[in-house]
Amino acid sequence: MIVVNTITKTFGAYKAVDAISFTVKKGETVVFLGTSGSGKTTLLKMINRLIEPDSGEILISGRRITDQRPEDLRRKIGYVFQNNGLFPHYTIEENIGVVPRLLGWPADRITKRVTELMEKLRLSPAQYRGAYPNELSGGQQQRVGIARALAADAHVLLMDEPFGALDPITRASVRKDFKQLDELGSKTIVLVTHDIQEAFELADRIILMDGGRIMQEGTTDDLFLRPANQYVKDFFEGQRYIYDHFKNKQS
Amino acid sequence: MHQQSAKLLQQTIQHIGLTFISLLIAVLIGLPLGIYISRNKKAAGFVLGFAGVLQTIPSIALLGFLIPLLGIGPLPAITALFLYALLPVIRNTYTGIIGVDPGVKEAALAMGMTATQRLFKVDLVLAFPVIMAGIRTATVINVGVGTLAAYIAAGGLGEFIFGGIALNNTNMILAGAIPAALLAILLDLLLSLVQHTGSRKRRVMIGVLPLLLLVFSSFYVLPFGRTRLLAGFTPEFMGRRDGDIGLREVYGLNIHTVVISDAVMYKAIYNHKLDVISGYSTDGRLKAYDLLVLDDDRRIFPPYYAAPVIRTEVLQRYPELAPVLNKLSGRINDSVMTLLNYRAEYLNQPPEQIAREFLVSQGLYQGPRGGRKGVIRLGSKIFPEQYILTDMYAMLISGFTDLEVESKTGLGGTKICFEALIHQQIDMYPEYTGTALLAILQPPAVLSARLAGNRDSVYRYVADRFQSDYHLTWLEPIGFNNAYALMMRRSQAQQLKIRTISDLTKYLKNDK
Lengths: 251, 512
Fold this sequence. Notes:
Chain A is α/β, with parallel strands linked by helices.
């Protein structure tokens, strides 16, 4: 469980995140939705201390994140980047195994885990194990990025626009395979996106942000059918097609 | 020939060693410094600026600064090369690390790497090609600047290059320059292979590189410490029959020798860095540093008696000229000339003042008559002794004849003065018999060996040939002999009871 308590972050005179509080329950997937500059990525990076807040506190499983060394904290949190963030000088196997290696897992356990994840994410281990990131397509690279975040069995997964850099067809296929991962069942996931369809498809709960503040939080139906204010209403205006499509798929 | 190729190999190996020792030190210091400033941007400007300023100091000047601090030999040479190698190493380390994709850097942190883990596992590995490019630049710079090490007795391929320049021997220049160029190209190629290893082998290469630097560094065998006395000879002296070669063949002199430029040689012997040097017998520094000229008892150094050389045609047109110019004859011996040079070089008195005061003291000075009968154009080579002599002749001519004088001083070396004379650009200049014999007439070795040692026979031979071949007349010798000479500190020579070159040879033989 992640508890975020009135955190604020300013860059110079610019308030990126303005006294925000929320809770993500264990096993829940919360999607932060918003335009560029809404503060959602800053928020995400404060959860694993890539950015330190000016004030407020964050607890994971009841423990303040500032009570531990940042690297220990981060090794227990999976992180997926928009532009995959793979190490260009590491093979696919080394990229996926990077956190287990930092944690000191034995070599055979790492190999086994890497093979397992590659199969789950439809990357042929025989073909790609020794390849380098630049030898893979964009979709494949993103699959590796996801595998890397899952490798050490972290309970918390942070995802920063994980499918945002992919073309629509690849995006749909990677997202589909991601959703079907059995690994996700028990994970607490915070995902940031500006893609409404993605938010609808993946979220247990959506938090819509603007200007560093929360505009509304709730289910897809809550936000779409019962907007709390004019901003939320405007945000979803003209998106009925996506909502209907989502509902059809659900039923 | 065989001896020369062995020497070439030795110099090449020395050169590689010199290049890589300084490179190794530059990497050991520049790499951490580059890493440091990539994290402290405030320090970056200062450090890069400072290293940049070092880079702009001309290499000769840098060596000049270092000699008072570090003396001569490998230490100042390596220090200078190290300073030149520093900027490319620091700058490329800095640029390389700064240039790593910020997304990848952030990912490294997000995965839970510590700052140190990120540095070694990510930043340095990804910056490696850029850092290597810096090391390549530094290597090529070092191979080039390393040739200057020959000026300060640190060896390397510069010995051939500067010897060749001094002797006007193109083959000798190329014997140093071609290997130096090839070395630069080869090392650059080798390092570019290291630089462009793909990700797969890069981690191996990062391990190999320090090993490579160490192995090459060990090539440098310090060129010091065999016989008890150490000699420093100019590159020119090393290659001459009336120089190092003659010393070995005629005297059987066996002394450990380093090559050094004459600009720093006198200072080095004064500071006990050298014990024997090859100098010029009327150099003002003989007096300044209290050096003793060893007697050339087997006469390998041909006499270099100075006398005015003048176009015969001019003498015929103005018959009054010869007696006036000959007034100086026999007036200046070696020690007088040394003193005059000392006043110019060390007391920084203008040559014109030295010339006038000397003429006054000899009762030879008369104020200019302001005659308009004709113009005599005087030339001189580009060093103080020649300026002083030319000024004396100018004063004699304008004081004792109705002729005008036009001075064209500072005509570079022998070749330029002589060409100017035979092409009637000047009418006269002071020349030395030995120079005329060996540099201009260049008679067969047998003949010059027979002439060498005898002041009068050399003078007669030179005067006859100049008259018949070039219509130039040698007037009477001034009296002093500015010849090559071996010299030692007076105190040490007296202590070891060495007065002649034979004494020195004997001392070295017994010393072993």
